[in-house]
Here is the input.
Amino acid sequence: MRKSRKDLINKISTHLLLMVISFIVLMPILLALSVSFQPRAQIFSYPPSLIPDKLYFGNYINAWNLVNMDRLLVNSLLASAIVMFGKLALGVLSGYAFSHFEFKYKKTLFFAILFTLMLPMQVRVVPLFEFVSKLGLANTYSGLVLPFLASATTTFLMRQHFLTIPTSLMESAQLDGCGPFRFLFQILIPLSGPTLAGLATVNFLVMWNAYLWPLIILNSDEMKVAQQGVKMLFTSASERDWGLIMAGTIMVVIPTLIVFLLAQKFFVKGIATQGLKE
Amino acid sequence: MKEQDYDSHFSVPYLLILPSMIILTLFLYWPTIQSVILSLYRTAPFGARRIYSGFDNYINLFTDPVYRASLLRSAVFVLITIFGGLAVSLILSVLVNQKLKGIKIYRTIFFIPYAISPTVAGSLWVFLLNPVAGHVNYFLDLLFNVQVPWLTNGFFAFIAIIIATIWKNMGFNIIFFLAGLQSIPDSVYESARIDGANSFQIFRKITIPLLSPTTFYLIIMNIIFTVFQSFGIVDIMTQGGPADATNIVIYKLYRDMFVNFRPGLAAAQSVILLILVLIVTFFHFRFGSRGVHYQ
Here is the structure.
């Protein structure tokens, strides 16, 4: 009896501690949310208030109009969706080559793909910008997404996953006269749901969160992406209008949070198995 | 390895790899090679003409006190961010590595900042740290009666980008520490407890050594992305200022290219970063599975 009571107290205090820490970790988001619903007068009152008096939507409307948020969000959504599908498609194909085929220079080619992990955007951004501009793709969707379409990580993880599928499956498929492409599409891919979902989430978020490349390659307001919108809020809002800036920031982060929370299980697995950022 | 499957389709694997190879060659390998070439040229002012200049860009960089200061600043930034970040993450991981109802909710909360972009993270922290309406200074004033000039003082601006970076990358570290902690069998802890070790001793003598492969891996990954990923945070929070106090290498590179229009000089900085990445990766492969404790 005494032991279980001590246990209970222990549990409650751990919960309390974790709640306080969770609150601190989420503080930047919670306070931004709070401020985004406050009118200017309340934001600059002293002491600063933690909870809005009443829900004020003016900041959201103003932020939306100031930076053309609809356009930015659509651009980001399109780019992220294209990159997500592109990486998955190319990664599935190349992963399949390395998991189920023997061919000349297999090891060299595999290494050549993995080596690109050493070449982050920042070490090639200058010539990449010149190259994509020369192709006439500056300030276009194609220029924005092309450099991201293939990925060593996705190739590697698809290969790892395909290797776990029993060989007997393939042997019987071959005996039944099932060709390599039918085998891929009708057997391997349907068996890869969770792996594909994990990679899709990570790849979507990587593109949604990308900033340096869009900043460099996009220059007209109607082509810009949501992350650039955050910067635009700072440069175009009149003298530190925090309510507006935080409202805009919240709008940019909401899709991230939705994707993360929906696919959390896959996302964490995706990160834990790849352990790589691009 | 599987052998000669589908051997009648000898061209199939090459076709499968081709799309990836085209993209990677055009947009990853080719620009990297170009970076190396470009770093040996300088651009004539007001002209597109490029003049071969050998190692001049490198010599200029390494004799330039601004660049040397930026390198040193980045090293300090990386060190503090990694040390602080790993310490915080480890403590939080131990806390959420308990069998407790609802523990998954806390884990999810701790992962959230990692899904958020550097730009958004920067924006949230600029607001929190601003002197007029920000809450951090309000509480510091309330508790300790101090007003910290977060983004207007060089030293504090440096601390500010470190805080934002640690906050943003914590989730990544926790995912790995948690996986590492869960791979330590309960029997190890039990026998330590039977031998009379207290929680702190267990943490120091068992948890930390057994986690060292994870820690080593995390240090490597953190070096790479603290150097590269902090661009968004710096661009929103400080733009490298005040007075260069947060002008880390990646930000200087960007400015030399796209503000000062000196592609050769910027490319040389890219190559220096590339060499650093290769060195770090070499260490990863060379010592990744050695000198650290596996059970």
